Amino acid sequence: MNRTSAALGSVVWLVLAPGTVCGLVPWLITGWRQPADPASWVDAVGWVLVLAGGAVLGHAFLAFAWHGRGTPAPAAPTERLVVEGAYRYVRNPMYVAVVVLVLGQVLLFATGGLFAYLVVIALAQGAFVRGYEEPTLREAYGPSYDEFCDHVPRWLPRLTPWRGAERSPDRVGQR
Q1: Do 61 and 72 form a contact (C-beta atoms < 8 A)?
Q2: The model's pTM
Q3: pLDDT tier at 5 (50, 70, 90 boundaries)?
């Protein structure tokens, strides 16, 4: 897949998947209404988390198109493992970014409903990654994927970037 097609496919998937999870559903829950008396430091932390999560999410989608020449959508996966930027630190930066972004919204809008939604998102992502994504990638890519998993944590980022994937550019990407 060429980079232009990959970029267009990634934008469509970004709008459909994270756009729904991080935008539409939180809006349906909160109406974007903040508490009458929000704590200024809580608001500040909320905005930092929303912006950081959005930046990592945007970077991850760009990395899939640019470096992987594919999309995060299962129908148009990357041609190789994406280990650029955030992917050198954590295996699933898109999922982590979604949780961080919605956590920021929980702080901004202070609703129990949005907090419950955050818990559901985190549990669903964990179940999907462990139950489907990792076994599928392990079956398809064997020892190469195992090496990646051995060196790059699933959820909490490493302190230093992993560079092992530079030796094997023919592996697929993860979300």
Answers
A1: yes
A2: 0.87
A3: confident
CA–CA distance, 174 with 87 (Å, rounded to integer): 9
Which amino acid, 23?
Answer: G
**Alpha carbon 80 to chain centroid, angstroms:** 17
User: Would you say residue 166 has pLDDT above 80?
Assistant: no
Distance CA 63, CA 165 (A): 14
The pLDDT of residue 165 is 52
User: Domains (ranges, CATH) in the chain?
Assistant: 3-167 (1.20.120.1630)
Residue 65 reports pLDDT greater than 70:
yes
Highest mean pLDDT among 68-72, 122-126, 171-175: 122-126
| Contact by Cβ (8 Å): 78, 60 | no
Helices (DSSP H) in the chain: which residue ranges? 3-19, 25-30, 40-66, 93-109, 112-128, 134-151
Is the dihedral angle over the CA atoms 86, 90, 92, 93 positive or is it negative?
negative
Supply the DSSP string of 31-61, one letter for each residue. TTPPPSS--HHHHHHHHHHHHHHHHHHHHHH
